[in-house]
Amino acid sequence: MQTPPVCNYEGSDYQTSFWDKGGHAYEDAAEALALKKLLPASGRALLELGAGAGRNTPRYPGYNQITLLDYSHTQLEQARERLGDSIRYRFVAADIYRLPFVPGVFDGATMIRTLHHMADAPAALAQVNRVLAPGGTFILEFANKRNLKAMLRYFFRRQQWSPYSAEPVEFAALNFDFHPRTVFAWLAALGFSVEKILTVSHFRMGGLKRTFPAAFLVRLEALIQWTGKYWQFSPSVFLRARAALDGKAQTNTGYFACPVCQAPLRDTPPRITCPQCGRSYPVANGIYDFRIDASEE
User: Fold this and answer.
1) What are the backbone dihedrals phi and psi of residue 120, each rounded to the nearest 5 degrees, phi first?
2) What's 296's DSSP letter?
3) Which of 49, 72, 115, 139 has a CA 20 to 30 Å removed from the CA of 4?
């Protein structure tokens, strides 16, 4: 089964170079603020899609168990080193287009700074919907093509693509911006109901960040994120959506499913073998590897 191309951070020092030392303290704090406003107080099982090195994982204190999913094995290794060994965490290397879980197993999911790498965003969102329990909470962040900077650049003819058109724009390889109305329509088609919208990172401008302390910008950010209910002109948009109450309830006590044929799998480290299609998946150093090599397809 062919799937869209995957953006792979294998071997990257993204956490260190971009977040820890890259001058993005304001963006990090702004996103933490949004998550705090959107997350439910408690939950059973959370799926963190595009978890990377676990930057946001400590921000989900209300969930009993968190599954960190990323395509990059090395990013998950960094996350495991960062978070430590705990039965509260599962580390899964997998393709978002082929999630290796049985339907309805999670009551919460987050996808932060990840949708913008999805060449087929509706397909990725459909997979999230499949593994969420009825009424499950989905926290989504997406890169907004209709942001103020893009609108000004388009007005002064400094960019060719229109920030007002509905289709996604690929401004760099496997980096997409989305129109808010398009994302909302995709979610509605899957049965999600959007409960809350926040606009985030309003002050993501080099001049402002060099002039004012991050803490000051975050205080201003806290005052205006709520405007996302009415308009979305910031570079980043966060939302909380609720899965439909009907369908896709978990019908067995399993957890993993074969990403190729969707047969339920027994959790049998150090190797998990599908009883239906015979594919085998390794488990090493606490990381489940459900990635499918292109040569196997």
Assistant:
1) -125, 75
2) G
3) 139
| Coil/strand/helix, residue 290 | coil
Mean pLDDT per block of 10 residues along the chain (297 residues) reads 86 96 96 98 97 98 97 97 95 98 96 98 98 97 97 96 98 96 98 98 95 97 98 98 80 85 96 97 97 72
Q: Which residues contact 167 (CB under 8 A, 6 or more apart)?
A: 179, 182
CB-based contact 99:123 (threshold 8 Å): no
**What is the per-residue burial (b if ≥16 Cβ within 10 Å, else e) of 113-150?**
bbbbbbbebeebbebbbbbbbbebbbbbbbbbbbbeeb
pLDDT of residue 287: 98
Q: Rounded CA gap, 164 and 180, in Å?
A: 10
What are the CA-CA distances from residue 47 to residues 88, 127, 137, 165 (Å)? 12, 12, 10, 32
Q: Which pLDDT does position 252 carry in this prediction?
A: 61
pLDDT at 2: 67
Contacts of 120 (CB under 8 A, 6+ apart): 3, 4, 97
User: Residue 260 in contact with residue 267, Cβ under 8 Å?
Assistant: no
What confidence score (pLDDT) does residue 3 get? 81
Q: How many helices (H) and strands (E) does the chain have?
A: 8, 12
Report the DSSP pairing between strands 271-273 and 280-284: antiparallel
Model confidence, pTM: 0.96
**Domain limits, the chain:** 14-296
Please tell me the distance from the alpha carbon of residue 32 to that of residue 165, in angstroms, as a whole number: 30
Residue 215 makes CB contacts below 8 A (sequence gap 6+) with 29
**Highest CATH level, class, for 14-296:** alpha beta
Q: What is the DSSP letter of 264?
A: B
